[in-house]
Amino acid sequence: MNEPNLIFLLVLLPLAGSVVAATLPAGARTGTAWLSGLVLGAGLLILAGLHGPVAEGGVLRTTLPWVPSLGLNLDFRLDGFSWLFVTLVLGIGVLVVLYARYYLAPSDPAPRFHAGILAFTGAMIGMLTSGNVIMLVVFWELTSLISFLLIGYWHRNPAARDGARMALVVTAAGGLCLLGAMLLLGRMVGGYDLDRILASGDTIRAHPLYGTTLALFLIGAFTKSAQVPFHFWLPNAMAAPTPVSAFLHSATMVKAGVFLLVRFSPALGGTEVWFFAVTGTGMATLLIGAVIALFRHDLKGLLAYSTISHLGLITALAGLGSNGAIVAAIFHIANHAVFKASLFMAAGIIDHESGTRDMRRLSGLMRLMPATGSLAIVAAAAMAGVPLLNGFLSKEMFFAEAVEWHNGTWLDNSLPYLATLASVFSVAYSLRFIATVFFGAPPTDLPKTPHEPVRWLRRPVELLVLICLVVGIIPGLTLGPTLNMAARSVLGADMPTYSVAVWHGFNTPLLMSLAALVLGAALYFTFSTRIAQGPEGPPVIHKLQAQRLYERFMLAATWTGPRRLLRLVGPDRLQPQLRLLVLLAIAGATYMLWRSVQIEPWLGPTPLNAGFLLMWVVGATCAVAAAWQAKYHRFAALVLLGGAGLVTCLTFAWFSAPDLAVTQLLVEVVTTVLILLGLRWLPKRLQEIPGDRLRSARVRRSLDLVIAVVFGATVSIIAFVVMTRPQLSTVGDWFLRNAYSEGGGTNVVNVILVDFRAFDTFGEITVLVIVALTVFALLRRFRPATEIAGQPEQQATPTARALRDYMLVPSVIMQWMFPVLIVLAAYLFLRGHDLPGGGFSGGVTLAIAFLLQYLATHVRWVEARLTVLPTRWMGFGLLIAGGTGVGSWVFGYPFLTAHAQYVDLPLIGEVPAATAMLFDLGVFGAVVGATVLMLIAIAHQSLRSPRPRSQDEAARSEHEEAA
Amino acid sequence: MEFVLSAAIGILAASGAWLLMRPRTFQVIVGLCLLSYAVNLFIFSMGRLTVGAPAVMPRGGFVNPDAYADPIPQALVLTAIVISFATTALFLVVMIAARGFSGTDHVDGQERNR
User: Which of chain B's residues have a Cβ under 8 Å away from the Cβ of A582?
Assistant: First the structure.
C-alpha cells in the first residue's frame, strides 16, 4: 500500500472503529477497550511507516474530489508538524483507552465512551492533516461536537450537561468565526488549498480585509484553546470523566487552537497586530490562569486553570513568531500534553480511590499510595518547571525568547517580568498540589479509604512520567530531531537546526527559572493556610467571572430575548402580525416604485368614460362603506361588499374579459350566500363593545387608517404606472396565435386553462376539493356557541311568520328555475372552448341551481326529493381530469397533452370534441361537488341538535375517566 | 380610464387592508374579499385596458395579437377568483368553529384584556 492511501487510512480507521464500537453490547468493557486500543495502535504503526518520508522534509498528500465545482476536496497532507501532533494524539489516546478500561465503573456504558474517543481521534486527525481549509473547519467543528458528547457522558449529572452545552456553544461559535476567516482567506488567495494559503502570506497581509480575517481567525483559535476571555468553558468541562479531561481537555483538543496559530503564523503572522493580539492574549491568559489555579480547591479545577495558563504560554510564543519561539511552542505543546495528561490521570486515581477531589479534605496520601504519589510529584514538578524534567526545557526556551526577542513595544519590554511573575504562580500552585495532597497529617473523614489502584490504572501514568524524565534529561537524543523536523515544516526548510540541551550555561533564563522557583515556594508557604480557607478562586477576581457574562448572554439570547420578541410579534396576537405584513408590502411596493419610476415615456391615458367613472364612484363608496360598517352592521357590510363585487364584475366585462365577468358574477352569488349562512353563528352585536371609545383604541384605528391609505396609494400608483406604459410582447401573443391551431378552441382564456396550462388547473381543482373536504371535516366537529343555538329569535316574531308567506312567490319561481339553470349550466359548459363560459362557470351555475332549491324550501324538503352526492361529484371530477391526463400516456405523449378535432353530429352540426373538453368536464364536476359540499355543510348546521358546550365537556371527561 | 381604475384599485386595497387589521373576524373576512377584488383587478390591469376585443379568435387565418386583450392575466385571474372563493369558505368555517370554541369573535380567540 502506498503512502497517500495510508494517510486516508489514518483518518478513516478511527472513524470506522467508532461505528463498530457503537454497535457493541453495553457490557463489552474489555472488548471495546481492545478494539479502540488496537485501532489507535494501528494508527501509530502507520505513522511509524510514514516517518521516513516526513523526516526528509517531504509533505505527503492525497486528494479525493468531493465537490470540485466549489473547490471542496478531501485533501489530506502530512508534514513534520502534523506528524508530531498526530503521534501525540494517538499515543496519549492509547494510554487513555487503557486507563479508561480500569477507571470507568462497570455500570458505565463502555461502547459509548470508546465510540466517542475513537470518533474524536478521527476528527482530530482529520483536522490536523486536512489540506483544505474548509474541511479543516468541518473536522474542527466535529471535534467540538464530539467533545460535547464526551463531556456529557454522565448525562444524568446536571453539571455535566451544563458544562457540555457551554463548551459546545463557545467552541462551536468560535468554529463559525473560523469558517468565516477561512472563507475570506480563500477569497483572498483564490482557493481553499492550505499550501496555497500558507504560501501567500504577503498577499493576505496586504489585503484590506486582513484585520477582519485575523479577528475571526483568532476568535476561532482562542475559543478552542480556552484563551481569556473565552477560557471559562474549560473548567466547566471538567465534569467529564477524567480520561476525557486528560485526552481532550488537556492534551489534544484544546491544543487545536494553538496548532492553528502555529500553522498559520507564516500566513497571518509577522505583523504588529498579530503580535499584540496573540502574545497579549497569551500573556494575559498565562498570568490569569496561573493566579486562579493557585486558589482553586478542586484538583481538576486547579489542573484546568493550569492548562489554561500553559495554553496561554504557547499562544504567547506563537505570537512572537520567531524561529526559536515556534520551536519552543511546538516543544511545549508536546511537553505539556505529556505531563498534564499524567497529572489528570493521577488526579483521577486520587478521586477514584479516595472519593473526593477537594484539596481541603485530602492530605498525607503519600503514606497510603506512595507509587501514585511519587509519579504525581514528578509530573507536578515538570509542570512547575523544575530542572531535569521536560517542562523546564520548554519554559527555559520561552524565557529565552522573552528576553532575546525585541520589537521595541511596551509589551515586548514587559515580557520577561510577566513571564517570571506567571512562573512564580505556576510554581506555587504546583507546590500546593504536591504539599496538600501528599504531605501533612493522614487524611480523616474521606468517603473511601485510599489505597494504591490496580496495576493497569497506574501504567499509563508511569509511562508518561518516564517520558517526562527521559525528555527532560536527554532532550537532544529523544525529542530534539523530531522537534526540528516539525518546526522546519512550519517555518520552511532553511530554518537552522536548534540544539535542545539541558545546560545552556549560567544565563538570564536560568536566573529567571531559579527566581520563579524560590519566589513561588515562598509565596505558597506564606499564604498556604489563607488560600485553603479562602473562596474558590482568587480574592476580588473570583467575583468578576466571564462565565457570568456568558450566562447572562445565554439567558438573554435563549430565554428573555425570544420571549420579548414573541410578545411583540408572537402568534397569539394576529393584528400586529397582519400590520407588519401590510407594512412589509408597503416597503416592497415603495422599493419597486423607487427603482422603476420614469424608465420609459408615458403613453397617453385612454379617454375617460363618464359611465365608467360613475360606476366606480358607486363601487368605491360601497367598498369604503363596507369597511366602515363591518363591525356593527354585518348584513349591511355584506350587501355593500356585494356592490363592490358587482362593479368589479362589470369592469371585467367592460375591458374585454367576458369569462372573468361571468365567473366573478357567479362566484359573487355563491360567496354572498355562504357568508349569509355563516352570519347567524357570530355573536350578537347590539351594543357597543366596551373599550371601543377608549383613547388607545382610537389611536390604533387612526394609525391603521394611515397605514391602509398609504398601502392603497402605493398599490394605486404601481397600477397606474404599469397601465400607462406600453406593453411588451408577452407569451400571451403566442397563446393568441396558437389557441385555435394547437388547442382547437377559439376562446383563448379557456384554452389556456384546460389545455396549455392544464396542469395548473388540475392543481387548482385539487386544492378546491381539499378545501371543501376540510370545510366538511371542520364542521362535523363544530359546536355552536350556546346562546345562539336553536331558532333565531327573529324567526319567532309574528312579522317573521308573515314574511314567510310573502316568500312563497319567490320560492315557487326558484323551484321552477331549477331545470332552466341546469340547461344554462350545460350551455355555459359546452360553449366554453370557443366562447366565454367553461367548466368553472358551468360548475358554479349548477351549484347555484342546487343552492336555490335549498333557499326556496328547506333542507329536509330538498333532501327528501333530491339526492346530491357532492363527494361523488368531486371524485368523479378529479378522476376524469386526472384520467384525461393519464390517457395521453397511452399515445406516448406527456401528462395532460390534449388532442382537438371537430365532430359532425347529426342535427346539431359541427361540435368541438377536444380531449380538453373532457378535462373541462372534470373541472366542472369538481367545482360542482366542492361548492355544493361547502354550502350544504354550513346549511346543515341549523339542523344539528344544539348541545351546550358544558354538556359536551362533561361527556368528554366521563369518557376519559372510563378510559 | 387608467386613472379611475387605479384609483378604484387603491380604494379597494385600502379598505381591505384597513379591515384586515381590525379585531373582529367578520371584519377580516370582508377585508379579505375586498383585498381580493383589488388584487384581481390589479393583476387584470397588468394586461392593459382593451375595450371591445375579448380574446376570442377567428377559426384559422392570421391572428394579430395586438388586436386582442391579453389572455394571460385573464386566465390567472379566473383561477384566482375560484381559489379566493375557496379560501373565503375555509376562513368562514374556521371563523364559525373558532367562535364556537372560544365564545368570542375576536381574531385572537380572546377579548383583549385591559
Answer: 17, 20-21
Give residue A57's region: left, alpha or beta (phi > 0; psi -120 to 50).
left
Answer yes or no: are the C-beta atoms of A323 and A400 closer than 8 Å.
no
The fraction of chain A above a pLDDT of 70, given in percent, is 93
> What residue of A is the nearest CA neighbor of B107?
A574
Mean pLDDT over all residues of chain A?
87
Cell matching residue B47: 394586461
Do the Cβ atoms of A900 and A836 come closer than 8 Å? no
Answer yes or no: do B71 and A691 touch at CB < 8 A: no
From A663, A757, A761, residue closest to B81, measured CB to CB: A663
pLDDT in tens, A153-175: 999 999 999 999 999 999 999 99
pLDDT at residue A548, as a whole number: 79
Per-residue pLDDT at A455 exceeds 80? yes
Put simply, whether B113 touches A (Cβ < 8 Å) is: no
Domain boundaries, chain B: 2-50+68-102
Which residues are CB-neighbours of A820 under 8 A, at least 6 positions away? Answer: none
Residue in chain B lying closest to A723 (CA): B48
pLDDT tens digits for range A287-338? 999 999 998 889 999 999 999 999 999 999 999 888 889 999 999 999 999 9
Query: How many other C-beta atoms can be found within 10 angstroms of the C-beta atom of residue A104?
Result: 20
Say which of B47, B63, B79 has its CB closest to residue A764: B79
CB contact under 8 A, B2 and A605: yes
- What ipTM goes with this model? 0.95
Q: Kindly state whether A623 is in contact with chain B, defined as any CB-CB distance less than 8 angstroms.
A: yes
Question: pLDDT tens digits, residue range B36-75?
Answer: 999 999 999 988 888 888 888 877 777 787 788 888 899 9
pLDDT tier for residue A958 given thresholds of 50, 70 and 90: low
> Would residue A633 count as lying in a domain?
no
Residues A199, A183: Cα–Cα separation, whole Å: 17
Domain termination site, one of A516, A539, A562: A539
Contacts of B45 in chain A (CB under 8 A): 719, 722-723
Q: What is the mean pLDDT of residues A235-243?
A: 92
Look at residues A539, A574, A594 and tell me which one is the last residue of a structural domain.
A539
Candidates 1.20.144, 1.10.10, 1.10.287, 1.25.40; CATH matching B2-50+68-102: 1.10.287
Domain extent, residue A406, equals 267-539
Give the number of domains in chain A. 2
> Does residue A946 surpass a pLDDT of 90?
no
State the smallest CA–CA distance between residue B111 and chain A in angstroms: 10
CA distance B22 to B11: 17
Q: How far is A311 from chain B (nearest CA, A)?
A: 56
Q: Is A64 helix (H, G, I), strand (E, B) or coil?
A: strand
Neighboring chain A residues of B55 at a CB cutoff of 8 Å: 656, 736, 747-749
3-state helix, strand, coil in chain A (%, to 5): 75, 5, 20
Query: Using one digit for the tens of pLDDT, what is the confidence trace for A327-344?
Result: 999 999 999 999 999 999
- B16 min Cα distance to partner chain A (Å): 7
**Residue A14 pLDDT > 70, yes or no?**
yes
Residue A298 forms part of a structural domain: yes
Is residue A260 included in any domain, yes or no? Answer: no
What's the pLDDT tens digit per position in A103-140?
Answer: 999 889 999 999 999 999 999 999 999 999 999 999 99
Question: Which of A678, A727, A740 is closest, CB to CB, to B48?
Answer: A727
The angle subtended at Cα A233 by Cα A228 and Cα A238, nearest 5°, is: 125
For A190-241, where are the alpha helices, taking DSSP H only? 194-199, 201-206, 210-224, 233-236
Establish how many alpha carbons lie within 13 A of residue A805's alpha carbon, considering only the half-sphere containing its beta carbon. 4
Is residue A4 in some structural domain? Answer: no
Mutate to test the interface with A, among B36, B37, B83 (most CBs of A within 10 A): B37
Q: Which residues of A are less than 8 Å from B83 in CB distance? A: 764, 767-768
